[in-house]
Specification:
By secondary structure, the chain is an alpha+beta fold. About 15% of the residues lie in helices and about 50% in strands. It has a 6-stranded antiparallel β-barrel with strand order 1-2-4-7-6-5. It is elongated and about 50 Å long.
Length: about 110
């Protein structure tokens, strides 16, 4: 496949994700269309091993065409009125059509 065909396939895949897992991220007061998937909350051990905490994780992909600069780790993001914190951002490859963002929150 040619590079342009690969890029077109990646963009189609991102649009499909957005239609199947439609969501909106609010970052610094700006809304971004995204594909968002949330996992069920689960207990995880604290890094120091002193106990466990209830954590919910999510992944989101946002097209670089609408969010040209990657958000920073630790940034607070709002999804459907609930605040999440960015764990990591992938997609530095110039050929990647979207930023792949992993998030977490500590539910009530």
């Amino acid at each position: 496949m040619s590079p342009s065909a690969v890029q077109a396939a990646r963009q189609r895949h991102q649009r499909t994700l957005e239609s199947l897992h439609a969501g909106t991220l609010l970052i610094a007061g700006v809304r971004y269309t995204a594909a968002v998937t949330r996992a069920a909350a689960a207990r995880e051990m604290m890094p120091d091993g002193s106990g466990s905490v209830l954590v919910q994780r999510a992944t989101a992909t946002v097209r670089k065409a609408i969010l040209p600069t990657a958000p920073v780790r630790g940034t607070v993001v709002t999804i459907e009125g609930i605040e999440w914190h960015i764990d990591s951002v992938a997609g530095d490859d110039p050929q990647a059509p979207a930023w792949f963002i992993t998030l977490h929150r500590f539910p009530g």
